[in-house]
C-alpha cells in the first residue's frame, strides 16, 4: 500500500512546481509592506493550539473571563486605566462589535469632531506601538502620590528609537493623556493630530490585533455554527453517512467476489479487484463527505483545510490504484518470464513491492506536509539532514541490517521456506524483511535475527543439500567371536544394499555404494561403522527444496534401517554392547592372580 502513495504525489508535485515556475507572481517581498506575509491564512497547528487554549478557558473561573460585555478594563481613574480601556474596547470594535465603542469614545476629549474616526486612527497608531504592558503605565496610586496631571505616552513614555529607524524621521505627533477632574482622557492635540501621526507611521507594519489564543479558535469555528442552518447540518450528515455506507457495501461486495475467485485459483482477477477496491472505497467516502459539507459555512482557514484533506484523500486513492497496477504488471512479468516455480523470483518480487511501498509512504508524507500543513518541505529535509547527522551513530545498526538484507537478496543464501541452521538453531525461514529475518524453530518459537548477523556469521542452508550421508556406529560386545563379527558386517552390508532400503533412499549403488568396516576397540564394545547415502531425489541435480523429501522423511528412512538391523542381529544371536564392568576374584582358578613380594636386604 505504501507504494501507492508515491506516484500520483510525484506527478502532482511536479505539476505544482511547473505551475509555480510559470506563474507571473514573484515570491519575493518588498520592504514597502514591512515584509509582511502575503497570506492571512490560519495555520493548522496554530488553530489546534488555539483550540487547546479555548478548552482551558472553559475551566477558568467566571471572574477571569473577559468579553465585550464584561471587559477587563473599564475605568479612567489613571493613565493606565484609560489607555487599557481604550485599547481593549477598540479591539472589540475592530472585530465588528459596536457595544464597546461608547467606552472608547469616553476616553477622548468631549465634543471632538468625527470622534469615531479619531478613535480608529488612534487605534491604528497603537497597533504600530510595541505591545504595551499595563505595569509600565502610572496607575491610580502613582498618580496620587506624585500628583501627576499630564502623562506623555509617546514618544517619551515608551522606547521610540525603533520608530525613527523605521520611518527615517521623527513621527509627526504625540500621544498625551491629561487629567480632567477625576478622569483621565487623551488630550485635544492627541485627538486632533491622530490622523497625521498615523500617516507618518504607516511605513511601520501594524501588530496583529486579534488575540491568537482561545479567541482565534472561537473566531474561526463560531461562524460555522452560527451561519449554518439546521437543514444544512442534516444534509451534511445524510450525505456523509450515505457515502460511508455505499463505500462499505462496495467493500463487502468486492470481498465476496475476491473470495469466490480465490477458491477457483484466479489470483490475477483477485489482484485486479483488490487494486480497484480500496481506491473506490476511498473515493466514494470522500465524495459523500465533500458533497455533504458543501452547504456548511466555513471560515477560510477551515475551508482551505477541508479541500486540502479532500485532495490528500484523492491523492491517496490515486496512488494506491497506480501502485496496485504496477504491482499487477510486476506479477504478470514475473509469471511470464520466470513462472511461479522460481523461488528467487517470488522473493525478489516481494522485496520490490515492499521497497516501492516505503518510497510511496515517504512521498505521500512530503506531499501532505507541504499541501495540507503548509510546511516548507525543503527546510524540513534540510533539518532532517542535520538531525540525521546527529543520529548517524545511533542508527548504524539499522543501516547494517539494511545492508544485511540487501546482501541476502543479492547473494541468496536462503529464501522463504528454506530449512537453515544458524548459531546452533534449526528452523524454517518464514520472512526476510529489510531489517530482520524470522525463523520458525523446530520447537515452535519464532527467532528474529537482525540481518547484519548474516554478513559475518556462517549459516547452513539445509534445503540446498542434495543428499544426507549417514554414518552409523553399531557396538557389539567384547565376547563376540571373530566369525560373528564378520557375520555382523555382512548383515549390515546386506541391509544397506537391500531393495527396500535402496528404493526408499533412492541411492545409486554405482555412484554411492555403502561401506561397512570394523572401526575400533572401544572401552566396553567392538565398534562397527557403516556409511551410506540418503538422496533427496532420484535426479541427483535436484535439491531438497525442489522435492517433497527432507529431514523428516530421512528420519523415517533411518527408522527402517535400524529396525531391520535389530531384527537381523537378534536372529543371529549377536548382542549389542552396553556399558559393563568386569570384576576378577583372586580365588578364580581360570584367572589366577600373580602376586609378587619384594624383600629388601638389611643394610650392612
TrEMBL record:
GO terms for molecular function: mechanosensitive monoatomic ion channel activity. It is found in: Cell membrane. Residues 471-544 form the Mechanosensitive ion channel MscS C-terminal domain. Residues 397-463 form the Mechanosensitive ion channel MscS domain. It is a multi-pass membrane protein. Its main location: membrane. GO terms for cellular component: plasma membrane. Pfam families: MS_channel_2nd, MS_channel_3rd. This is MscS Mechanosensitive ion channel.
